[in-house]
Amino acid sequence: MNELAILSKAMIQERKDIILSILGGFIAGIAGVALFSASGYLISQTVFAPPLYTLIVLTSLVKLLGLLRAASRYGERLYSHRATFSMLSRLRTSFFARLIPLTPGILNKKRSGDLLARIVGDVESLQHYFLRVAYPPIIVVMVFLATVLFTSAFSFWIAGLFVLGMLITALVVPGLVLLGQRKIHGHVREQRALLSTEVTEVLYGFRDLKVYGQLAQREQQLQQASAALTVQQQRA
């Protein structure tokens, strides 16, 4: 809960960019749905040989929707990533502010390589919290509700099928994937910490390892740790 409170506080501080990214994502989603519908309607109308002005209007509408979708998607990516980088900067600053009073006592409990992995990797992995966890569901729900409300004006059955498909896609499939990914991400963190520890020990003890002829053995251990991390990352 403490980590979630820190992330929520950082998101509140970047609320302007977050609101703009959500707005851009909503416009892009609605434009994508409208583009898909307009394209299908245009194809269906060509079968009946409509007047030329009808085709011109529909073709222009498809092009405008494509431009609107591209522009709004660009704005959504721009503001969401700017908010993410700002939040990561605040989190790193907060992390070091909490870490400095604990040194050097914390080095007696944790190895420096493991601590380095936590500073670099764990904080960096928080970028996915906002980009893939926090605000995408908000955009999906907004676009989905707007689509269902619009569709229900024509057919409640089709709107019901949309709701059923949304529930399966948003709840069932991610739940199954999450069960398999939970253990894999834990192994990735362990292997990353082990690799960072091996690299740090080799760098600090390079001279002694060279003198006592243990450098080749430690290099082999380092390669094994790197290969194990690569395998876990590919699985993730």
Give a written overview of the molecule.
By secondary structure, this protein is mainly alpha-helical. It has a domain at 1-115. The protein has 9 helices and no strands. It has helices at residues 2-13, 15-46, 52-99, 112-125, 127-134, 136-152, 156-204, 206-211, 215-235. It is elongated. The protein starts with a helix and ends with a helix.
Summarize the structure.
The protein has 236 residues and is mainly α. It has a domain at 1-115.
In whole angstroms, the N-to-C terminal distance is 25 Å
Number of helices: 9
Q: For the residues shown, what is the average pLDDT? A: 80
Weakly predicted, low-confidence segments: none
- Let me know the largest β-sheet: none
Helix content: over 70%
Query: In terms of structural class, how would the helical and strand content be classed?
Result: mainly alpha
Overall 3D geometry? elongated
Computed CA radius of gyration, to the nearest angstrom: 26 Å
Oligomer: single chain
Can you count the beta strands? 0
Order of helices and strands: HHHHHHHHH
- Beta-strand fraction estimate: under 5%
